[in-house]
Amino acid sequence: MLGTTHGSAGLFLGALSGTVCGGGVSGVIWGAAAGCVAGLLPDIDHPGSMAGRLFRPVSLYLEERWGHRDSPTHTTLFVLFAALPLAVLWLLFGCSAAPFWGAVTGGASHIALDAPTKSGLRPWRYIWFIPQKWRERLYRGKLETGSSLEWLLTAGFLAGTALLVM
Ligand SMILES: [Zn+2]
Fold first, then answer.
1. In angstroms, what is the span from residue 126 Cα to ligand 1's centroid?
2. How many whole angstroms from 2 Cα to the centroid of ligand 1?
3. How many structural domains are present in the chain?
4. Where in the sequence is the domain holding 160, given as residue range(s)?
5. pLDDT at position 155 over 90
6. Fewer Cβ atoms within 10 A, N terminus or C terminus of the chain?
7. Is the pLDDT of residue 23 over 90?
8. What is the pTM of this model?
9. Which bin fits 48, alpha (ψ -120 to 50), beta or left (φ > 0)?
10. Half-sphere exposure (CA, 13 Å, Cβ side) for 59?
11. Residue 55 and residue 44: Cα distance in Å, rounded?
Protein backbone atom coordinates (compact mmCIF):
# COMPACT_ATOMS: atom_id res chain seq x y z
CA MET A 1 0.00 0.00 0.00
CA LEU A 2 1.01 3.60 -0.55
CA GLY A 3 2.27 5.86 2.23
CA THR A 4 -0.77 8.11 1.79
CA THR A 5 -3.09 5.18 2.52
CA HIS A 6 -1.12 4.08 5.58
CA GLY A 7 -0.79 7.65 6.86
CA SER A 8 -4.47 8.45 6.41
CA ALA A 9 -5.57 5.16 8.03
CA GLY A 10 -3.32 5.90 11.02
CA LEU A 11 -4.60 9.46 11.17
CA PHE A 12 -8.23 8.29 11.23
CA LEU A 13 -7.73 5.49 13.78
CA GLY A 14 -5.61 7.78 15.96
CA ALA A 15 -8.30 10.48 15.88
CA LEU A 16 -10.88 7.80 16.71
CA SER A 17 -8.74 6.62 19.64
CA GLY A 18 -8.52 10.21 20.86
CA THR A 19 -12.29 10.54 20.65
CA VAL A 20 -12.86 7.27 22.55
CA CYS A 21 -10.24 8.09 25.20
CA GLY A 22 -11.59 11.57 25.78
CA GLY A 23 -9.29 14.50 26.36
CA GLY A 24 -11.08 16.83 23.96
CA VAL A 25 -9.46 18.37 20.91
CA SER A 26 -5.90 17.83 22.17
CA GLY A 27 -6.63 14.11 22.75
CA VAL A 28 -7.86 13.80 19.16
CA ILE A 29 -4.86 15.72 17.77
CA TRP A 30 -2.25 13.75 19.75
CA GLY A 31 -4.01 10.47 18.99
CA ALA A 32 -4.12 11.33 15.28
CA ALA A 33 -0.44 12.37 15.24
CA ALA A 34 0.66 9.15 16.97
CA GLY A 35 -1.58 7.07 14.71
CA CYS A 36 -0.22 8.69 11.56
CA VAL A 37 3.44 8.18 12.59
CA ALA A 38 2.77 4.58 13.68
CA GLY A 39 0.90 3.95 10.43
CA LEU A 40 3.90 5.06 8.38
CA LEU A 41 6.72 3.63 10.53
CA PRO A 42 6.67 -0.06 9.41
CA ASP A 43 7.71 1.01 5.89
CA ILE A 44 11.04 2.16 7.31
CA ASP A 45 12.31 -1.08 5.71
CA HIS A 46 11.83 0.54 2.28
CA PRO A 47 14.39 3.28 1.44
CA GLY A 48 11.90 5.01 -0.88
CA SER A 49 9.23 5.40 1.80
CA MET A 50 8.75 8.51 3.93
CA ALA A 51 10.15 6.80 7.06
CA GLY A 52 12.92 5.20 4.98
CA ARG A 53 14.03 8.56 3.60
CA LEU A 54 14.13 10.06 7.11
CA PHE A 55 16.15 7.19 8.60
CA ARG A 56 18.10 6.12 5.54
CA PRO A 57 20.92 4.10 7.19
CA VAL A 58 18.38 2.08 9.21
CA SER A 59 16.24 1.63 6.12
CA LEU A 60 19.12 0.41 3.96
CA TYR A 61 20.17 -2.08 6.65
CA LEU A 62 16.64 -3.48 7.06
CA GLU A 63 16.10 -3.82 3.33
CA GLU A 64 19.43 -5.52 2.74
CA ARG A 65 19.10 -7.87 5.72
CA TRP A 66 15.44 -8.95 5.29
CA GLY A 67 13.84 -7.11 2.37
CA HIS A 68 10.80 -4.85 2.31
CA ARG A 69 7.81 -6.33 4.17
CA ASP A 70 9.80 -9.31 5.42
CA SER A 71 11.70 -7.28 8.01
CA PRO A 72 10.70 -7.23 11.71
CA THR A 73 8.95 -3.86 11.18
CA HIS A 74 6.06 -5.59 9.41
CA THR A 75 5.04 -7.61 12.48
CA THR A 76 2.54 -7.14 15.28
CA LEU A 77 5.40 -7.32 17.78
CA PHE A 78 6.99 -4.23 16.20
CA VAL A 79 3.65 -2.38 16.39
CA LEU A 80 3.51 -2.99 20.16
CA PHE A 81 7.23 -2.23 20.59
CA ALA A 82 6.86 1.11 18.76
CA ALA A 83 3.93 2.09 21.00
CA LEU A 84 5.77 1.15 24.21
CA PRO A 85 7.20 4.64 24.99
CA LEU A 86 3.66 6.04 24.78
CA ALA A 87 2.43 3.33 27.19
CA VAL A 88 5.12 4.45 29.66
CA LEU A 89 3.98 8.09 29.35
CA TRP A 90 0.37 7.01 29.92
CA LEU A 91 0.79 4.48 32.74
CA LEU A 92 3.74 5.95 34.66
CA PHE A 93 3.42 9.68 34.04
CA GLY A 94 -0.33 10.13 33.81
CA CYS A 95 -0.37 11.40 30.21
CA SER A 96 -3.39 10.76 28.00
CA ALA A 97 -3.96 7.20 26.74
CA ALA A 98 -4.94 8.57 23.31
CA PRO A 99 -1.44 8.59 21.75
CA PHE A 100 -0.78 5.01 22.91
CA TRP A 101 -4.04 3.64 21.48
CA GLY A 102 -3.57 5.80 18.39
CA ALA A 103 -0.13 4.24 17.83
CA VAL A 104 -1.42 0.69 18.43
CA THR A 105 -4.39 1.04 16.07
CA GLY A 106 -2.41 3.04 13.49
CA GLY A 107 0.41 0.45 13.48
CA ALA A 108 -2.07 -2.44 13.35
CA SER A 109 -3.79 -0.79 10.38
CA HIS A 110 -0.50 -0.91 8.48
CA ILE A 111 -0.29 -4.67 9.00
CA ALA A 112 -3.97 -5.14 8.10
CA LEU A 113 -3.67 -3.03 4.93
CA ASP A 114 -0.50 -4.76 3.68
CA ALA A 115 -1.86 -8.27 4.31
CA PRO A 116 -4.27 -8.41 1.32
CA THR A 117 -1.62 -7.18 -1.16
CA LYS A 118 0.23 -9.46 -3.59
CA SER A 119 3.46 -9.41 -1.58
CA GLY A 120 1.65 -10.01 1.72
CA LEU A 121 3.39 -10.36 5.06
CA ARG A 122 3.97 -12.65 8.05
CA PRO A 123 2.63 -10.60 10.99
CA TRP A 124 3.02 -13.12 13.83
CA ARG A 125 6.76 -13.75 13.55
CA TYR A 126 8.86 -13.43 16.74
CA ILE A 127 5.88 -14.10 19.04
CA TRP A 128 7.37 -17.23 20.55
CA PHE A 129 4.23 -18.58 22.24
CA ILE A 130 2.28 -18.77 18.98
CA PRO A 131 2.54 -22.16 17.18
CA GLN A 132 5.24 -22.10 14.49
CA LYS A 133 2.84 -22.78 11.60
CA TRP A 134 0.98 -19.56 12.48
CA ARG A 135 4.18 -17.60 13.09
CA GLU A 136 5.47 -18.45 9.62
CA ARG A 137 2.13 -18.12 7.82
CA LEU A 138 2.23 -15.67 4.90
CA TYR A 139 -0.93 -13.59 4.55
CA ARG A 140 -1.42 -12.33 1.01
CA GLY A 141 -4.14 -11.37 -1.42
CA LYS A 142 -4.60 -9.90 -4.87
CA LEU A 143 -4.52 -6.16 -4.19
CA GLU A 144 -2.00 -4.10 -6.10
CA THR A 145 -0.32 -1.04 -4.60
CA GLY A 146 -1.77 2.16 -6.03
CA SER A 147 -5.08 0.61 -7.14
CA SER A 148 -8.23 2.73 -7.32
CA LEU A 149 -9.54 0.94 -4.21
CA GLU A 150 -6.57 2.33 -2.33
CA TRP A 151 -7.42 5.91 -3.32
CA LEU A 152 -11.02 5.29 -2.26
CA LEU A 153 -9.81 4.05 1.15
CA THR A 154 -7.58 7.11 1.54
CA ALA A 155 -10.48 9.46 0.75
CA GLY A 156 -12.67 7.61 3.27
CA PHE A 157 -10.04 7.75 6.02
CA LEU A 158 -9.46 11.49 5.44
CA ALA A 159 -13.20 12.22 5.41
CA GLY A 160 -13.61 10.21 8.63
CA THR A 161 -10.75 12.15 10.25
CA ALA A 162 -12.32 15.47 9.22
CA LEU A 163 -15.63 14.43 10.81
CA LEU A 164 -13.89 13.49 14.07
CA VAL A 165 -11.92 16.75 14.21
CA MET A 166 -14.98 18.95 13.56
ZN1 LIG B 1 4.23 -1.80 4.61
1. 17
2. 8
3. 1
4. 3-17+26-165
5. yes
6. C
7. no
8. 0.93
9. alpha
10. 15
11. 7
